[in-house]
Design brief:
Number of helices: 9
Order of helices and strands: EEEHEHHEEEEEEHEHHEHHEHEEEE
Number of strands: 17
Low-confidence stretches: none
Mean pLDDT: 86
Length: about 350
């Protein structure tokens, strides 16, 4: 969990305007940090910056194909951590770097906020942090005001402080490995990958969150795609295995590949197929899939969508299967030339 409790922990703040370089939008740089004289504004900004990260359990690290020191955001953040007085100079460098990579025609310009937090809690540890936030979208707000004993209406454009467009928190932890980095990006379209890939140049940290997320994806693909290719298996059987997989991840504290294969799959042929698919998955996606790791509950919760227990029958029925597999029976009606399911139950509600 990520948390900043006091506005006093917001040590420095500067704002730059970063346009789209390919559209010849300008880059407007502030000459000095902003002085926060109004505590209310400061608290609103703190909420705007930090709230989107509060329950973010997924972490990244800076990387570079040749040398980590060549990652520009990593380098500028390191200089700030080493010398706080260089904050404004390095914030300008960060803004220039973002402007340089903002070349996709659909990238929106906006305000870039760069913040130095003297204290920030991340997973129970109190550390120094640097925040990089960008607002791209404007909302229209109605203004109600009293004029000559009558209420009037007007409107204005402004920033919705309940929705951060893009953000990054860099925690002063593990500099040698590329720091511990948390990311928010409200736009998942293709042009938005510039924030994570071109600007920040980060990759997921190989921690329990990433390992759990990877294994859940692997299991889901194996059950829904690979097993039906090799064995006669209907959709109900797949749902049953997905449910058993979900139960395993929810109830266990540690993943053990042999234990999972035996408890969830059971049949020796299916176990062998799973082990072969795991090696194929590891090679194809170039992902580390260890035999054992601690299961991350936040990752399981996020990946819950993969454990769907819905049986879709043409466009007529959706059957939600929650309980005993033996209470549903599949058959074929030769007279109608159609498949059918028979459901057994005691109470109708």
């Amino acid at each position: 969990m990520i948390h900043v409790s006091d506005i006093k922990d917001l040590e420095r703040l500067t704002i730059h305007k970063v346009g789209n370089a390919s559209n010849e939008d300008p880059l407007v740089l502030s000459q000095q940090p902003l002085e926060l004289k109004d505590e209310t504004i400061g608290n609103l900004l703190l909420s705007y910056f930090i709230q989107p990260f509060t329950n973010n359990a997924e972490y990244f690290r800076f990387t570079h194909d040749a040398d980590l020191q060549l990652n520009e955001v990593f380098k500028y953040c390191s200089l700030i951590f080493e010398d706080h007085e260089s904050f404004q100079e390095q914030s300008v460098n960060i803004a220039k770097h973002l402007y340089k990579v903002s070349t996709h025609p659909k990238i929106k310009g906006g305000e870039l906020y760069i913040v130095h937090f003297s204290k920030c809690q991340v997973d129970g540890e109190e550390v120094e942090a640097i925040g990089i936030f960008k607002s791209e979208n404007r909302d229209t707000y109605l203004k109600v005001y009293l004029s000559d004993e009558n209420y009037e209406l007007n409107y204005d454009d402004g920033i919705n402080i309940n929705k951060l467009d893009k953000g990054c928190l860099v925690f002063n932890i593990g500099q040698e490995e590329g720091y511990k980095v948390s990311i928010v990006d409200s736009n998942s379209k293709n042009e938005a990958v510039y924030w994570k890939d071109a600007f920040l140049q980060v990759e997921r940290k190989a921690d329990s969150y990433h390992q759990t997320e990877t294994m859940v994806t692997l299991c889901q693909q194996f059950i829904q795609q690979k097993l039906p290719e090799e064995f006669e298996m209907n959709r109900v059987d797949q749902i049953e295995l997905l449910k058993k997989s979900a139960t395993y991840f929810k109830e266990k504290e540690q993943f053990q590949v042999d234990e999972f294969a035996e408890e969830v799959l059971g049949h020796p042929d299916a176990v062998d197929a799973f082990r072969n698919y795991r090696e194929h998955f590891r090679d194809e996606y170039r992902l580390d899939v260890p035999d054992e790791f601690d299961i991350s509950n936040p990752a399981v919760k996020k990946q819950q969508k993969f454990f769907k227990s819905i049986l879709k029958l043409d466009k007529n029925f959706h059957v939600y299967i929650h309980g005993n597999r033996e209470m549903i029976e599949r058959g074929y009606d030769e007279e109608r030339n159609m498949n059918y399911y028979k459901l057994y139950f005691q109470d109708e509600k």
